Amino acid sequence: MFERDKTQVDETGATSAFLGKGSRVSGKLAFEGAVRIEGQVDGEITAQDALTIGETAVVNAQITGTSVVVLGKVTGDITAIAAQVPALFEALSGMQLSELLSRVKMIGAEKAVEKPAA
Fold first, then answer.
1. Residues 87 and 100: beta-carbon distance below 8 Å
2. What value does the mean pLDDT take over residues 76-85?
3. What is the pLDDT of residues 5-35, one digit of tens each?
4. Angle at 101 between CA 24 and CA 86, to 5 degrees
5. Rg (Cα) of the chain, in Å, rounded?
6. CA-CA distance, 110 to 102, in Å (whole number)?
7. How many CB atoms lie within 10 A of CB 103?
8. How many CB atoms lie within 10 A of CB 4?
9. What's the rounded Cα separation, in Å, for the pair 35 and 14?
10. Has this prediction a pTM greater than 0.70?
């Protein structure tokens, strides 16, 4: 009787969770799949998969994840196997960058802070 259009595209891509712009959450958040945050978060974030802090996000949290991409504003420590912070590389250089990278804790066998391709 009713059928869902199978050609419909998921607007959030391959994410299993999405916190949209205008949303505000305080506390401990834990995610098992890929997640994208565009809203405001205060507290702690743990992600077992990819975590993307979007352009409109304002995050004041301790972040732990496998892969963390920061496109918005983050205040707090990031612990990750891989972290991408494009704005960091554009805004900072020399000593400032070294000082900030010393605060990014890396875990796992393959430790790397990835500089995004230009």
1. no
2. 84
3. 443 334 445 778 899 999 999 999 999 999 9
4. 60
5. 16
6. 17
7. 9
8. 6
9. 9
10. no
Can you tell me the distance from the alpha carbon of 12 to that of 1, in angstroms, rounded to the nearest whole number?
28
CA nearest to 59, candidates 48, 81, 44, 47: 44
Both tokens assigned to 113: 């802070």
Token readout for 9 is 């595209």
Alpha-helical (H) ranges within the chain are 86-91, 94-101
Among 56, 71, 63, which Cα is nearest to 28's? 63
Give me the residues paired with residue 79 across strands: 64, 105
Domain ranges in the chain are 17-105
